[in-house]
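TL;DR need structure tokens for one chain.
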Amino acid sequence: QLQASGGGLVQPGGSLRLSCAASGFTFGHSAIGWFRQAPGKEREGVLCIASSGGTTYYTDSVKGRFTISRDNAKNTLSLQMNSLKPEDTAVYYCAIPGVVATNACYGVRYWGKGTLVTVSS
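>> reply
TL;DR here they are.
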């Protein structure tokens, strides 16, 4: 299971930290990432990280603003979001991708439930 939390309403320019608690599989052996789906748009990969933590993927729109981290000892994944913009408004999902490379993150094998992030004044 993947349980995301930490969503909410934040003003533009603000920060938010999402967490994902994993259970039921060997977290340390799995790539994992954050995806999001904005109203009326397709779901997209935001930030993904390989099992070793050595490879990460991020979509250009969050470069320099979002940071992904994983704690294999605690089976948790985090997403630190800074300088939030209204266009970051979306449901954010924690998921297990099949492929993580520096320029791609896809082939999701398992989706967790999402958490809503709303960026608005």
